[in-house]
Design brief:
The chain is an alpha/beta fold. The protein is 37% helix and 22% strand. The chain contains 16 helices and 18 strands. The longest helix has 24 residues.
Length: 476
């Protein structure tokens, strides 16, 4: 039995895929060990979203080889897709597998080990020539979703469910469409089967995730045929318009019918998908969490154009308005990039004022990071790092203020919390979890209390906000 150590870099989709890969390896008799231990095989699920992500991927691959020079080091994922030439030249990488073959990891590894053993028993000259090369396995993208099924997850209460892969948006700063390919949606019945299995295993909350989940279902060929259009024509249309065509809301309605499932949380949404009808259908389902991440990136229309984002700030504000018209006080979160090429002080001021107007629960603020191979990387008027840092600090301070303001509205109220873990804060121990709108709640544990119940829906009366930003409360 060979030992294998796995390490993940990047997004929740990567995390989901790594858990499935680990599951497949265990089913095939491999012993999974921590990544910092000596192993026979190291598998690094790589990321390529920025140049820094590329560097981190290389560092982890090299660290694995240093840990055990005789180990087989396997690179999988996005860095393999976009950096094939570098991967092939990297002497630390023995086997490289593209995104569309992750589902075949166990069989690929089995065949690789078999061929490697044959070479070791063959001519020394041939062995030296071949064993030093990197074997690259099929990095061409397909037009169909690569099915993977998860039966367990490292988290005890919340299960991330991948529903689609790929992206058709081609934002000027993003390399992901090249790393992940075009939109490929998972069949609804496969998703329902996986979720039912997770619910049967005790999970009460699921989070729908993917590279661009708002595009879910736009690639289903049967819809194209019904309309008498070729798949290619429909795909071209869907790049810019999926109003009324995305099947995401239909999927959520099917998931809402599953017995035993308590919460459905949505991953990052494209603002344009949130029409009044979409918001009303969401609000009609009690299991859908009133917590919505609408990616913004900039509060200035000119900057959005350079980013190749397909909406205006007015359209974004309208989508937020729809959600707030059907929910009492939904948690709206977002991403913002500061220092995008050409962003002037006036444009940044527009972004700042727009963020003030919307009033987000949380904002993830990123300093623009140049990514080779994207249009933005060669744009004129690149913003100096010190200006990016100054602008980031302004928005981070705004984020702290707005987040605190939102959480304060939930003080002295009774909320429902799904308990997740025991956490030490200062000198005390707390049982922590999240409300449906993703406010983190902490319930004080006594020093003698050793048994706690995780994965339990608990009614809690909120009292105060702790210094760490967590809301303290007492069980009702």
């Amino acid at each position: 039995m060979k030992s294998v150590a796995l390490h993940n870099l990047g997004c929740k989709v990567n995390s989901y895929e790594l858990e499935v890969m680990q599951q497949m390896l265990q089913e095939n008799g491999y012993e999974v060990v921590p990544f910092d231990q000596v192993a026979d095989i190291y598998i690094i699920n790589t990321c390529t979203v920025t140049n820094i992500a590329d560097r981190k991927s290389r560092q982890m691959l090299h660290r694995a080889k240093q840990k055990n020079p005789d180990a087989i080091v396997v690179a999988v994922g996005c860095y393999v897709q976009t950096g094939k030439e570098a991967v092939e030249k990297d002497e630390c990488i023995d086997l490289a597998i593209g995104n569309n073959r992750k589902k075949d990891l166990a069989s690929i590894l089995k065949e690789y080990l078999k061929e490697r053993e044959l070479l070791r028993t063959g001519e020394q000259e041939m062995m030296d020539k071949t064993l030093g090369d990197t074997t690259v396995i099929d990095i061409n993208h397909t037009y169909e979703y690569e099915e993977m099924q998860l039966v367990q997850t490292a988290e005890h209460t919340r299960a991330y469910i991948k529903i689609q892969d790929g992206c058709n948006q081609f934002c000027s700063y993003c390399v992901i469409p090249y790393a992940r390919g075009r939109v490929r949606s998972r069949h609804m019945e496969d998703i329902l089967t996986e979720v039912k299995g997770m619910v049967a295993a005790g999970y009460q909350e699921i989070v729908l995730t993917g590279i661009h989940i708002s595009s879910y279902g736009i690639d289903f060929e049967e819809e194209a045929f019904k309309e008498g259009k070729s798949v290619e024509v429909r795909r071209a249309e869907e790049r810019l318009d999926y109003s009324g065509r995305s099947k995401l809301i239909d999927l959520v309605e099917r998931l809402n019918e599953i017995d035993g499932l308590k919460r459905i949380r949505l991953g990052s949404l494209e603002p344009r998908i949130v029409t009044l009808e979409f918001a009303q259908r969401l609000a009609s389902m009690e299991k859908v969490c009133p917590h919505f991440h609408l990616s913004l990136q900039s509060g200035c229309d000119e900057t959005l154009k350079r980013m190749n984002r397909h909406y205006t700030t007015d359209e974004y504000a309208e989508s937020v308005g729809y959600l707030r018209s059907v929910y009492e006080d939904p948690a709206i979160t977002t991403d913002v990039i500061v220092g995008f090429p050409g962003e002037t002080e006036e444009e940044f001021a527009m972004t700042r004022e727009f963020l003030k107007k919307i009033k987000f629960y949380e904002m993830h603020v990123f300093k623009y990071s140049k990514r080779e191979g994207t249009k933005a990387a060669v744009m004129k008027d690149q913003v100096p790092d010190q200006i990016k840092t100054a602008r980031s600090n302004v928005l981070l301070e705004m984020e702290r203020e707005q987040s605190k303001e939102y959480r304060e509205k939930y003080l002295n109220k009774t909320v429902e919390v799904l308990t997740e873990e025991v956490k030490s804060i200062g000198k005390n121990r707390y049982l922590t979890g999240h409300t449906s709108n993703y406010i983190k709640i902490a319930i004080l544990l006594s020093t003698s209390q050793t048994e706690v119940e995780l994965n339990k829906l608990m009614r809690v009366h909120t009292i105060e906000i702790l210094p760490e930003g967590i809301v303290f409360g007492k069980e009702m």
